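The material for today's practical consists of a large collection of protein records. There is nothing in a record beyond a sequence line and a structure line. As an example, a complete record with its sequence and its structure tokens follows:
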Amino acid sequence: MQSYLFTVASLLAAGAAAWTVDLRNNYEDNHTMYIKAGETLEVLVDGMSGTGYKWISNVDYEQQLNDKAPGHIQFVEETKMQDAPRGFFGNDDESEVMMGGKKSYQLNFSTEEGSEYDEELKFVYARSWMLKEFPEERANAGNDWSQIRVVAKKEFAYDLQSDNFNLENLPSDMNVAPGDLIRLVIRENPTTGFWWHSNALKAQNSGIREIFNGFQAPDLRLMGASGKRVLVFEVNDPTAELKLGLCRPGDEADLFGYEAGKDELDDHLFRKSIKFSASAITEDPTIYQ
């Protein structure tokens, strides 16, 4: 199972999430975000503005060049973040970060509502006035390049969140139809050795197919911080049962019921079963958000 390290911001009161991808010290990895169209993205980068170098996105570059975004994602603004003081002159904002040290910046993006798309945000560390052509591949920019794949869905049949490890606020029964997408955002701290696992498979013909699995930490530079596990499932069998267990890697085999007559989740620190039923959805799926 492949997981991705990100940072997550709190869900907005209106229900739309603001997802924050932390690229600092993590520029070389392949990042993926699975979002609902219309949610916002905040990308954290670092650099030394005094040198003239900055992280520039392909979207910002195209907007400056052609006065419009190249796709469904639009660059909004760059803001300077408040870094932890590391210098000796606390009264001088600029000297709070050690001379020659990097500062953090937040690049804000909006996404178009009402449609589905799969697009890439690409970033290059360069001087804007020297950038004559945006490098589309890492091979053309070396280590000064990064990317985030953004997969946007028009809607999820159920968009569920739990801040408690026991998942007590999640439903035990759900009405679903074939092809429905379910997004779960649940609390996790993988530094304890326990991760959320499910009985969903990645195969196309699985009764419950896992199409996204990502971990999002509050700050990649904070060791041991608790974050969020984001899971997206596609329901192919509306009579299936989704099983979730917080366990160590290697113990998730219990979720598939290999030992007949045993409660497969008994040995898990926390656990949850959600039974599906094949009938029209009659309740508001957002009540569990």
Observations:
- Residues 158-288 form a domain with the Immunoglobulin-like fold (CATH 2.60.40.2020).
- The chain has two domains: 5-153, 158-288.
